[in-house]
Amino acid sequence: MNTIEYAQEIINELQSSVSQLGEADTEQMAELLLHSDKVFVAGAGRSGLMGRAFAMRLMQAGKDAYVVGETVTPGIAAEDVLVLGTGSGETQGLVTMAGKAKSLGAAVVAVTLTPESTIGQLADYIVKLPGAPKDQTGGSYITIQPMASLFEQTLLVFYDAVILRMMEKTGQTTQRMFGKHANLE
Predict the structure, then answer these.
(1) d(C-alpha 7, C-alpha 60), whole Å
(2) How far is CA 128 from CA 21, 59, 79, in A?
(3) Per annotation, catalytic residue among 116, 152, 168, 185
(4) pLDDT (tens digit, 9 = 90+) per residue, 113-161?
(5) Among residues 99, 28, 38, which one has the least CA distance to residue 65?
């Protein structure tokens, strides 16, 4: 295959993946975020990068949103939500964050491949995404992409869809969001 054919196959995989998302879980997450005080987002590796993009859009949509671990991130409290993007649901640092958030009364959302994982068991809300784990040996989900690329892409598309749903519910517009876009560059 050439590069364009690979790109088309990635789009085909992503389309198949997105078509498997559960409507009820996604609606529940959008409502939870709309009614929370602050939203904290975390993930490891590429999932963490997708989370950072999500936090940026949440902020631009008018939510108090933070990336866990940044120096300007405040403390989490009972009216807040922690969103964890994690394929395995077993990343130790994220497990610790989930436990800490729960102990402080915050809601925990796991966006994951594995609802039965440690983070899935700690979570108050679970959104199961389709995709392949990093270690694809013996897996049932077939992808031409390496490691967890399909999960990470689906995660970003899902996060963007949640933003669009929140915008629709609040009457938010792209023009108003642009006013919160970084302008110091």
Answers:
(1) 30
(2) 7, 24, 24
(3) 152
(4) 889 999 999 999 999 987 655 555 555 567 756 577 788 888 999 999 9
(5) 38
Q: Helix, strand, coil proportions of the chain in percent (round to 5)?
A: 50, 15, 40
**Is 152 tagged catalytic?**
yes
Position 10 pLDDT exceeds 80: no
pTM recorded for the entire structure: 0.87
Distance in angstroms (rounded) separating the CA atoms of residues 17 and 98: 26
- Average pLDDT score, the chain: 86
| Mean local confidence (pLDDT), 82-92 | 92
Residue 126 main-chain phi, psi, to 5 deg:
-125, 130
Report d(CA 29, CA 88) in Å as an integer. 20
| Residue 101: both structure tokens together | 């958030």
